[in-house]
Specification:
single chain; 7-stranded mixed β-sheet; two-stranded antiparallel ribbon; binds S-adenosylmethionine; alpha/beta; 272 residues; Rossmann fold; 10 helices
Length: 272
């Protein structure tokens, strides 16, 4: 089957790995621990019955989890193959659907569908593949009702866990890479693309005036980044201890996470 045209180098890279994405990442306990932390926040923010839009939803793991708990989710992703993988998973579950749509193109989606969602979320750094977040924020504003929460999980810029892991791996170039400004080279599935490590103030500036900041917490402050795999999965007791530390300290140490979960709320500002 031929995929529809991909909209960016990042979408092409994720397209290339879509079929093996779950098989590679799901067994890793560090990824599962970080996902559990995000899901706790999603379940608290969005009550059963809420209609949600997901941005960069990949193969649909979180969407499926939410739908099984009574929420409705429209998953969007820039990679057509990712959307195919998610759609296949959703076949048996009413309440989940998937569309190929880049985060930057949400305004076009809003022009095509009537729905105004009760909330939005994006997990595990999909928005780090987007250089300029302003068109994303403007488009998302059109899709959410006033007061709707938006939970956005992006890479943290100051990540001691990565400093440690990359130092032990003897990859000095990677140690401080998240402190760099502008687009940074990345590679996946043999393809080059760029990521941007968005600072808090850049994210908040892009989200205004349609969204007001409503808190943040670290995801993976003590639980390490996936670069610690497969080693850390061979030490489940250690990981359980690190996850317990995250549960109590990831809020006060929010700036030190592998990821940071930012919570915003849709204001009453009119979408343009
Ligand atoms: C690391 S994966 C995370 C997937 C999923 N959120 C999860 O938690 O498993 C990043 C996702 O972002 C998607 N992506 C990359 N660039 C994007 C863009 N500009 N707009 C929307 N999605 C994008 C990729 O196709 C990929 O599915």
């Amino acid at each position: 089957m031929t995929s529809p045209q991909v909209s960016s180098a990042a979408a092409a890279a994720f397209d290339a790995v879509a079929e093996r994405f779950d098989a590679r990442f799901s067994p890793w306990l560090s990824v599962a621990a970080q996902r559990r932390a995000v899901r706790t926040a999603l379940a608290q923010a969005f009550p059963p019955g809420a209609s949600l839009i997901e941005i960069g939803g990949g193969t649909g793991e979180d969407a499926l989890w939410l739908v099984e708990r009574g929420r409705q989710v429209l998953l969007t992703d820039a990679s057509p193959r990712m959307v195919q993988m998610a759609s296949a998973k959703f076949r048996a579950s009413a309440g989940a659907s998937a569309e190929t749509c880049a985060a930057e193109d949400l305004a076009q989606l809003a022009g095509r569908i009537e729905a105004r969602f009760d909330g939005a979320y994006s997990n595990f750094a999909a928005l780090n593949c987007v250089s300029d977040l302003a068109p994303f924020a403007a488009g998302l504003a059109k899709l959410l009702r006033p007061g709707a929460p938006a939970l956005l999980v992006i890479f943290g810029c100051v990540c001691p866990g990565e400093w440690l892991v990359e130092t032990l791996h003897r990859r000095p170039k990677n140690v401080l890479r998240r402190l760099a400004a502008g687009d940074q080279p990345a590679r996946l599935g043999g393809r080059e693309f760029t990521v941007r490590y968005h600072r808090r103030q850049d994210l908040e500036r892009a989200m205004a005036p349609w969204f007001r900041p409503a808190g943040r917490r670290g995801v993976g402050v003590f639980v390490p980044p996936s670069a610690a795999e497969p080693w850390v999965s061979r030490h489940p007791q250690l990981l359980r201890t690190l996850e317990t530390l995250d549960r109590s300290l990831a809020a006060p140490l929010s700036g030190l996470g592998d990821h940071i979960l930012y919570r915003f709320e849709r204001t009453g500002a009119e979408a343009q």
